[in-house]
Specification:
mainly beta, AOC barrel-like, 1 helix, 8 strands, 64% strand
Length: 166
């Protein structure tokens, strides 16, 4: 009987600890919005069939929730159909919600033809400094840069939150 009482006591203590522990959770997401200005430089052009691939490097200026500068290594594909697609990794340095550091974001986008506005998505992949635990995602849209070396505008919005520190 003594052994059963010990087991029940242990189970009771474990259940009590499990039910009273408070997990560290991230706060609710905050809204992100602003302007992303950039200029593109074409590093390489190659063709495969009727598709054209442009290896690009971009400089960016961010205002709004994301406030800072960026560089971007990307690829633009002009498809046989006339549609354009884009994917890149953005390296951002600046501040978000008063916290400073760097971010790496994945961005993808498309437009139905060369004269239409761009539409796309972004996801924060990682950060450093005070942004090391920042997570977020969103959308972006706008006309973009009208030609290589010329500044263009993209608006962005989405949500972000800071994960609890380890």
């Amino acid at each position: 009987m003594n052994k059963k009482l010990q087991i029940l006591s242990i189970l009771f203590v474990m259940a009590f600890l499990f039910m009273t522990s408070v997990p560290a959770l991230a706060g609710p997401p905050e809204a992100a919005a602003g302007l992303w200005q950039y200029r593109t430089f074409i590093l390489e052009v190659r063709e495969a069939g009727c598709n054209t691939f442009l290896k690009t490097l971009e400089d960016g200026l961010w205002t709004g929730t994301f406030d800072g500068i960026s560089t971007e290594d990307g690829t633009v594909v002009i498809h046989c159909s006339g549609a354009w697609s884009f994917n890149a990794i953005v390296s951002f340095e600046g501040s978000v919600a008063g916290r400073n550091g760097t971010l790496t974001m994945s961005v993808v986008g498309s437009r139905p033809d060369g004269s239409a506005d761009w539409e796309g998505k972004y996801v924060i992949l990682s950060g450093t400094g005070e942004l090391d635990n920042l997570r977020g995602q969103g959308i972006w849209w706008g006309p973009g840069a009208p030609a290589p070396g010329v500044w263009g505008d993209i608006e962005y919005e989405g949500s972000y939150h800071f994960e609890p520190a380890d």
